Amino acid sequence: MGLPVGFPVSLLTGIEQIERKPSQSQATLLSIFSQEYQKHIKRTHAKHHTSEAIESYYQRYLNGVRKNGAAPVLLELANEVDYAPSLMARIILERFLQKHEEAPPSKSVINSMLRDPSQIPDGVLANQVYQCIVNDCCYGPLVDCIKHAIGHEHEVLLRDLLLEKNLSFLDEDQLRARGYDKTPDFILQVPVAVEGHIIHWIESKASFGDECSHHAYLHDQFWSYWNRFGPGLVIYWYGFIQELDCNRERGILLHACFPTDIVTLCHSVA
Amino acid sequence: MAAVLESLLREELSVAAAVRWIARSAQSSEDDPREAAALSSLRPLRKEFVPFLLNFLREQSSRVLPQGPPTPAKAPGSSTGLPGRSGGPPRGGRGARNQLFPPIEASSATTADAPSARRGGRRRGPGPARERGRGPGGPEEGVSGECLPWAGGRRPRSSGSPSSPSLARSDPPNLSNLEEFPPVGSVPLGSAGTKPSRRINPTPVSEERSLSKPKTCFTSPPISCVPSSQPSVLDTSPWGHGLPSGCRSLQEEREMLRKERSKQLQQSPTPACPTLESGSPHPSRTGHLTAEPADPARVSSHHRLELVALVYSSCIAENLVPNLFLELFFVLQLLTARRMVAAKDSDLETTPGAVDSLESPLFQSVHDCVFFAVKVLERQFHILSHLDKGTLKLLAENERLLCFSPALQGCLRAAYEGSVAKVSLAMPPSAQAVSFQPETDNRANFSSDRAFHTFKKQRDVFYEVLREWEDRHEEPGWDFEKGLGSRIRAMMGQLSAACSHSHFVRLFQKQLLQMCQSPGGAGGTVLGEAPDVLNMLGADKLGRLRRLQERLVAPQSSGGPCPPPTFPGCQGFFRDFILSASSFQFNQHLMDSLSLKIRELNSLALPQPEPSDEDGESDVDWQGERRQFAVVLLSLRLLAKFLGFVAFLPYRGPEPPLTRELQDSILSLRSQVPPVLDVRALLQQGLRARRAVLTVPWLVEFLSLADHIVPMLDYYRSVFTLLLHLHRSLILSKESEGEMCFLNKLLLLAVLGWLFQIPTVPEDLFFLEEGQLDVLEVDTVASEHGLDSMPVVDQQLLYTCCPYIGELRKLLASWVSGSSGRSGGFVRKITPTTTTGLGAQPPQTTQGLQAQLAQAFFHNHPPSLRRTVEFVAERIGSNCVKHIKFCQKKSPGAVRALLPEETPAAVLSSAENIAVSLATEKACAWLSANITALIRREVKAAVSRTLRTQGPEPAARGERRGCSRACEHHAPLPSHLISEIKDVLSLAVGPRDPEEGVAPEYLEQLLGHLGQMLRCRQFLCPPAEQHLAKCSVELASLLVADQIPILGPPAQHQLERGQARRLLLMLLSLWKDDFQVPVPLQLLLRPRNVALLADTRPKEWDLLLFLLRELVEKDLMKQMEIKACLDSLYEAQWPGDFSEELATLFNLFSAEPHVPETQLRACELVQPNRGTVLAQS
Questions:
Q1: Dihedrals φ, ψ of A169, to 5°?
Q2: Which end of chain B is more exposed for a tag (fewer CB within 10 A), N or C?
Q3: What is the ipTM score, two decimals?
Q4: How confident is the model at residue A254 (pLDDT cuts 50, 70, 90)?
Q5: Which residues pair with B840 in a beta bridge?
Q6: What Pfam family does this protein match (any one) (chain A) (predicted)?
């Protein structure tokens, strides 16, 4: 992934500072960057969605392509207003479709067009949208897919490690099939102890555990798992803020990698 | 009553005969005719003897000053202890002993410093009043009975009416004057507030008894100085003459006190911390705590004391006293009495007409007290020997005891040394959540998706609330209702709307059991912890540490020997939750669920060890049964307590001063309401099946939360009658075949004794007419092998269920810490000794962790799994002991046979292994108790060897997804490849710097990696593959249009045609062989992709044609499919010349498949930049 086009300067300097620390891997830095960028976008989301803003962006787009349809009009507009290109493309596409059709387009239509811009009735807009999508490093269907793939890869990695350690488990799909209402990545059929803590489930998070995302995960996922399956382990593969690992006694253990000191129920007679 | 005592003292009557007389209504053939004659005249008084005796002892000991740290059962009402009171009428000139009623000071003082817990002195009116009203005694005395606070229902009905005594005429020593005769231990104060034991009120004496002194009769145990709570209508009292002027206001105060108490009881069942102030201003009582040395040689009247001790002991032995442990506590108070208060002149005055033998005080000195106490203790040794090790040690070390009875001391020392800590394996306290069980919790169990999802959310809200409570409930100022109330009620609203209460109640109940079952969860200290800590310290420091411990411990749990029902620890959460929820639906579902679970557990067939032949006595054989029994019993008690709480919640409130009419109407209303659970039937069944040891303890918990009306309802009254009958039948000294086991009896006596002291239980209940008891004979011979005759109760369970027994130890400990002039009082500086690990969490041992793991293993599995494993371990373990075979061969087979077939292999293997371990452990435990260490080591080694050779079979590896077994999954990750292709696409689409580009080798490598990854597929998921397929098609379009910027000199920014074909062929091969998802090849001929060609100069139609032909060749697309796509391309608007070129392409494609390359060149047409044109399209 290259640096994002719509990249705020303040963040850049932050990244550069972090990058000098040799201990942090590039992936971790990218994960942290991605989270920071997302926070930035969330903060400014509303101001780009006022009807005045949308109208003004759309007019600027129309003027731009009228002058030169091959120029990266939409991408430059996104960069200029400091907004994610894919999201800008969505704004313009929605506005464009609204003009052409009476009813506002459904979300699934928009998403489908963003995934495959060749469905967009306007060739120039299709190219502009496509350009935004392939140049966006934090949003858009391609980035979503990459994120999903990264998550999946780490789950696979974890699964293999569990198999390697001979730990029997039920995965998310199996749990869902049995009607579980909340499903961690893996439930251990036989619990193990990690650093003296019993764990029943393991959740893989292919991201950096920062305060904001961790609290959201705690509320939406980790406590829910605890509420159903008891204590468990979260692996933040790209690291986490150490201070967040404060619920160990309560039953939520954080790790940045697969734990090495797993104690299993040993069956010899002591 | 005094007459009997006097007869005894005059030796006209043997103690045995007297006790027989007291205990049984009918005369026995053993009775000496002379004695019988002596007693028959006293027959109407028989029932009043015990209350009289108990109160007599209290009164007699009132001048003894136990001291030391707050000891339970002290009433603050003693005159010297309460200097600051005011407002009461001045005491009579002769002292209060001539008054019939305690002076007002006593109760006002009580009001001032006695918090809720001291319910001792209450006289509950309604019970006896009703009894009188309906009973043979007739209504004529009904109202009058109420007005006389001390004329309680103790008085037998028969003597109730015509022969009402006119007490006022006599001038008995006023034993009810708490100033003169404070209940035992009335001194220091502190814990006074929590002493709930009750002091019984004077009973009116019938005329014939008026000859004897004293004229007043007291019922049971000591302590509170408030003799009555009866509402009074003084004027109507037939015995009303002579009421002191302060009586009415006294009644009022009692009323207030009672209200206050029941309010507190309801609001904060946890006893308030006692204050020490009450007695402190009187240094004469509290400051000089030096104990008088007790000297056996200075005992005043051996004979008399011995006789009374004998009678008293016999009453205890016959269960004629309501609360065994309260009496023991009293006796220990006597043993540890510090000094005698100097008697006032008036106290020493001889009461006119008093019979000599009772004329002088029974206890004239500390020596007398100690002598008496030791005599009683000698007769209670059997009970003492079953107390915990700490109590035994304190008793054995008590210098007075040694001095007065070396023999008893020797026995106690031996008991202490021989005391094995029979502590069942304590389960680690699990503050875990209730596990999700698909069979009860998944969607299929809900009526709608909405209900399912509502419950999903409510489960999380519940735990959120619980976690917040855990974090904050100890913060000062935090309030449950304020903090969580609205959230809980919102939750209730949601549950009602979704009709999911039954699901939530199941969760609530399971969580309750999980959190509160273990003693730790109940907030109590677990027995046996202290000794471990002590063992870590040097012997020389033990004393100091122990004193520190005692001091730390004593104030915390000064609930006294009869604390009111409380909701300690986590139970408080559940109680407050119910209160805050205030949801009728929730409560109803909860009661339904609790009742069902109670029935289920109560009827659980607890596994019984096979009738063992040789080693039947072995304790180890019983460990498993005990543990299971303890778990079931503790669960039942908890459930029953909450059932009682919820069921009687609507009726709870301050005890109302009921008029007869009001009471009758309430009773007629309530008596038609069916009981929430048919406890009477369950009790009867339990007694018949000889399972009282299981049923009674939970029933007591249930009844302890009843409201004041409940004991008056016929239904519950009969339950109490059954319990009383049972209580009387539990004679500890009877130990024969088929009898209930000693500790079983002791547990029942303890819990029943406690129940009889609960404020809501009328005091007179215990001294019911025996005739009623006889009627309710229960046939208990039905089942010979009931639980009752099995040693299911151990010491730990006894103390867990009845933590108040620990008050005995505290009392003794306070003697140790406060006694002796060694340091001048018990408040000494104690220098704490430290040792490593103290205070901190002890490092987790491997064994501990393993035990936790085994425990945790069952957490997320259905409960049946655990039951099966434990059952197998139990059975096999027992068999092993018998036949010395080894466990690991049999257990797995047994487990396998019992578990469902679909049990996963890993679960099965763990379950089997746990069963093996448990069985082996059990066998080893037996062995360790029976075989020498050497043999044990060999056995263990053999077991380990066998286990090692068997080894756990490696779990089957999950199937490989797509790649060969040899694959080591070194292919690049899909996410990396998507990311790299995305970079190429963005470079091609632009914007880009002029010098930017990719090397052709890089593209080849990228496609190579893509191929590797698609062949490995280890990390690939369908969405990633779909995106990769789409991106590869985009890439092909860019290749065909020559739009990929190539690194190199500016002139060569294009890919060589050969390279481009090579790359296209790679892509074709990937599409053909490696992608497993549909590849959107039709994208190649979408207008947007084809338009890319318009930008190319010169046009490279040949690559497109090549690609299309290859697609057909490789059967990736059908010819017709491509033609259709090309056809549809015409529909788009193209510049004229581009349309022509498209037409040419179409024709070429439709022609011969293998067109020479030169012909393709024909398609290369020089065109001006078409960007503008396209933009306009």
A1: -150, 165
A2: C
A3: 0.88
A4: very high
A5: none
A6: TPD
